[in-house]
Inverse folding.
């Protein structure tokens, strides 16, 4: 009798061991989440659950680890992805993947919506952003493959430990079509293991190390980051009158959010539909323990060489046209407003700004690093925007920036630079143009009544003869265009002098710096600040000018 019983017990033990091993293996097997909650109508930021709605069916995602697997299986079976694909067919986006319960309320009551974009590696910056901004905050995150697990775990951690900060935040996700989001089944349990006393930056780093496979890390080192796509995703989700698009690691000075909201509630700022309000950015040295709390503290750090203008060393044109030496000398005052107006647009100028929602989109053709904001500012200049420098607002970026030595990033910068140089405003997607205010000659050259002032501070023209100057500065379009140009400048109160001093020639391009050639006795080229051009370029040379078709008026 003992032998059969012993055999039965042995079989039970073998089955139990196999079952245990199988469960362990299963626990490390990822649950693929190919479809997402794109059309979430409302989100309950309760400690235990998040609710999504799909075609009227409420689906519960419980934070308790024992029930997560069932919920995820239900999501995979019942939800059809409703995201949208970008125009190039490279990325898919799901807006309002999660939305704080106060999002809609603050969006109704605030004038300005803060917008940002980030990879999962920098999600920890959301904490200081939300601490300094009490209004609606729209965040677009790139989530290829298992990076989605990092997002879910990080949000779960923040929801548990920084719940109040997330109430005003809306999260949106984008990912390469070839790398749809994947969710590790241990994500929720992992997020619950971190103490709320831990620094969010440390938690973020640990989650990336644990949940991101080595193969994905290798891919991301060379992958192109769609900054402009993500900026558009975040901005389009806002329904406030003004939007404020900044990078996730640019932190606002404390208490400035209320001043900004009150300023933009005034009728004077609301009535200017083509005003861009510039907010300067400063780099803060890492030895400084805390960001400056006001402009006076910032100026003190500048004097101590512990702060400097953003991209001052790595890419000066980024903020070069903002005239920050003038901003730094403005009288310190508690009154919030416009310190001065910047008269001209300069090529490659890419400041952070606040403007009404009806502005050009960021050009999504620029992927990767470099020149990603330039095309939008060019189009805003073409549309007749004016630039207003706010006196007391600024953002802080931790660490001094230097020119990159990363060959991959440098390659991306050069590619985007080439793309920017080939942009032609006549053929690019123009913004808010009125055909009634546009004149054309027989050759199709355009005359803009409202005009656009452009300075090209990187221009370099060297000429050795009077004939070369004439060749570069002039061509022979119709007299109608020249008359229109001179008439327009006279109407604006500019002294045009005699720009047609060389008999038989007429103006086609004046966007050149004042020539130092001693032989130019018959005419003086117009100063660069008085030129209005329709074609952007970075380096003016003879061949480039002859091809550019620039028109001044």
């Amino acid at each position: 009798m003992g032998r059969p019983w012993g055999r039965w017990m042995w079989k039970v033990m073998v089955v139990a061991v196999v079952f245990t091993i199988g469960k362990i293996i299963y626990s490390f097997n990822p649950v693929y989440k190919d479809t997402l909650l794109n059309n979430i109508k409302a989100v309950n930021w309760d400690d235990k659950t998040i609710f999504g709605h799909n075609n009227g069916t409420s689906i519960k995602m419980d934070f308790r680890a024992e029930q997560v697997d069932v919920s995820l299986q239900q999501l995979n079976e019942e939800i059809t992805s409703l995201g949208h694909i970008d125009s190039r067919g490279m990325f898919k986006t799901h807006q309002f993947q999660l939305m704080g319960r106060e999002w809609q309320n603050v969006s109704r009551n605030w004038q300005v919506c803060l917008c940002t974009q980030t990879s999962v590696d920098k999600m920890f910056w959301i904490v200081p952003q939300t601490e300094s901004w009490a209004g609606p905050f729209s965040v677009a995150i790139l989530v290829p493959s298992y990076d989605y697990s990092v997002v879910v775990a990080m949000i779960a951690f923040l929801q548990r430990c920084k719940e109040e900060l997330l109430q005003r935040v809306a999260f949106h996700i984008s990912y390469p079509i070839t790398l749809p989001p994947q969710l590790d089944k241990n994500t929720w349990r992992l997020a619950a293991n971190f103490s709320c006393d831990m620094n969010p930056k440390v938690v973020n780093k640990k989650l990336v190390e644990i949940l991101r496979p080595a193969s994905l890390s290798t891919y991301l080192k060379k992958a192109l980051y769609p900054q402009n796509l993500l900026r558009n995703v975040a901005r389009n989700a806002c329904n406030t009158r003004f939007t404020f698009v900044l990078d996730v690691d640019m932190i606002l000075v404390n208490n400035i959010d209320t001043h900004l909201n009150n300023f933009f509630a005034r009728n004077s700022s609301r009535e200017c539909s083509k005003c861009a309000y510039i907010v300067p950015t400063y780099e803060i040295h890492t030895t400084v323990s805390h960001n400056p709390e006001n402009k006076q503290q910032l100026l003190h750090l500048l004097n101590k060489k512990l702060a400097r203008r953003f991209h001052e060393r790595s890419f000066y044109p980024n903020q070069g046209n903002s005239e920050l030496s003038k901003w730094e000398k403005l009288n310190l005052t508690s009154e919030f407003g416009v310190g001065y107006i910047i008269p001209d647009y300069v090529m490659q100028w890419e400041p952070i700004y606040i403007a009404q929602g009806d502005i050009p989109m960021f050009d999504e053709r620029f992927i990767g690093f470099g020149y990603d904001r330039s095309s939008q500012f060019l189009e805003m200049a073409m549309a007749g925007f004016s630039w207003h420098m706010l006196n007391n607002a600024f953002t802080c970026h931790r660490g001094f920036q230097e020119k990159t030595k990363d060959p991959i990033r440098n390659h991306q910068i050069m590619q985007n630079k080439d793309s920017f140089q080939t942009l032609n405003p006549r053929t690019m997607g123009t913004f808010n143009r009125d055909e009634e205010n546009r004149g054309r000659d027989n050759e199709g050259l355009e005359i803009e009544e409202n005009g656009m002032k452009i300075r090209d501070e990187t221009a370099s023209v060297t000429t050795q003869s009077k004939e070369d100057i004439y060749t570069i500065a002039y061509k022979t379009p119709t007299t109608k265009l020249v008359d229109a140009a001179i008439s327009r400048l006279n109407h604006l109160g500019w002294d045009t002098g005699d720009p047609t001093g060389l008999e038989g020639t007429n103006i086609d391009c004046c966007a050149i710096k004042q020539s130092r050639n001693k032989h130019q006795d018959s005419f003086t080229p117009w100063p660069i600040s008085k030129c209005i051009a329709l074609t952007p370029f970075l380096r003016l040379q003879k061949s480039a000018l002859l091809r550019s078709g620039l028109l001044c008026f």
Notes: Residues 82-248 form one domain. The first strand starts at residue 49 and ends at 54.
